[in-house]
Design a protein that fits this description.
The structure is a single chain. By secondary structure, this protein is α+β, with helices and mostly antiparallel strands. It folds into 2 domains: about 190 residues, Jelly Rolls (Sandwich); about 55 residues, SH3 type barrels (Roll), CATH 2.30.30.100. The strands form 2 sheets. It has a 16-stranded mixed beta sheet that branches. It has a 5-stranded antiparallel beta sheet with strand order 20-19-18-17-21. A hairpin with a 2-residue loop joins strand 19 and strand 20. About 30% of the residues are buried.
Length: about 300
């Protein structure tokens, strides 16, 4: 290549200090933009409210308590903790054991559980959550939902927004007002009842606090104690059994509970067979002499 052939055009302007300043400003702008996109300053995630027994890494805690990735949170059956996700929203942890994994590569906060229940209230954009169980993954952005895992059964209620549940290669998209009930016997999506929407109105009482000043804010301002107690009582104690009974009801028809003279209660689809009651239960057919039945009452599943 002939170096001499490279000459300066006669109309070319010299490189001025003004153009240098503009160039420097542009570099600073793009550097700042890159810094923000890389998530160099993640939001703080703090437990701002605790009711009854809540442990983090086997230590009893009180609010406020800032979590670090890998923290294991355990809530007793009557326990409740509110985890505020920056300024975006909050997660209500109820009975069960949870692992806080922190921020992943996709910008989502990951929380793992094997058995338990939690609710999420997305207040603003940026409430990107991923709930992990050994079998399923729930992904949501700025949604309000309830997630209950009990043995081999699962229930996801989406109150507002959208969420997606994946299990193996199967994926189910859920929108506002839908509930997914999943067990080995009967996966089902249906509309939420007004009674089941009650939890949403309770979660709206949760107040997000300024995490820079959370030490000076009483926990009673985060959630009134009577509301917290009602949230705890809404927690279903035996989801697996409830889903089995719902499947039984769809298969055979209305259910009844027979209380035997010894106090034992048997729930199933009831038929009178001569001097006996025959009940189709989740464990098979049970026969009971009518003379040994103290009472018979209709049973309604949580639908």
């Amino acid at each position: 290549m002939n170096i001499k052939s490279f000459t300066t055009h006669k109309d070319a302007r010299p490189y001025s200090k003004a153009s240098s300043g503009v160039f420097t400003a542009m570099l600073s702008f793009f550097a700042a933009l890159l810094f923000l996109n890389c998530g160099a300053s993640p939001s703080r995630n703090v437990i701002t409210y605790v009711m009854n027994n809540v442990l983090v890494n086997d230590t009893l805690i009180s609010a406020p308590y800032e979590l670090t990735p890998g923290s294991v949170i355990r809530c007793a059956k009557d326990g409740l903790a509110i985890l505020q996700i920056g300024e975006a929203g909050a997660i209500v942890l109820r009975s069960g054991s949870f692992t806080y994994h922190g921020l992943n590569e996709d910008g989502a906060i990951e929380v793992g559980l094997e058995k338990g229940s939690l609710s999420a209230s997305g207040k603003k954009r940026g409430m990107h959550l991923k709930i992990l169980t050994p079998e399923e993954t729930l992904t949501s952005k700025r949604a309000s939902f309830d997630f209950v895992k009990d043995d081999n059964a699962l229930r996801v209620s989406v109150f507002e927004g959208h969420a997606s549940l994946s299990r193996g290669r199967a994926e189910t998209a859920l929108k506002s007002g839908q509930i997914l009930e999943l067990s080995e016997a009967s996966p089902r999506v249906r509309r939420l009842t007004p009674q089941e929407m009650r939890l949403l109105s309770l979660m709206k009482h949760i107040r997000l606090v300024d995490l820079a000043k959370h030490d000076a804010i009483p926990s009673s301002t985060v959630l009134p104690a009577p509301v917290a107690m009602e949230i705890i009582t809404l927690n279903p104690p035996a989801l697996t059994e409830e889903l089995k009974l719902a499947t039984l009801e769809r298969k055979y028809g209305p259910l009844s509970t027979v209380t035997a003279s010894n106090g034992k209660k048997i729930t199933g689809h009831l038929k009178a067979r001569g001097k006996y009651y025959e009940l189709h239960t989740v464990d098979g057919v049970v026969k009971l002499p009518q003379s040994e039945a103290a009472s018979v009452n209709s049973y309604t599943t949580r639908r």
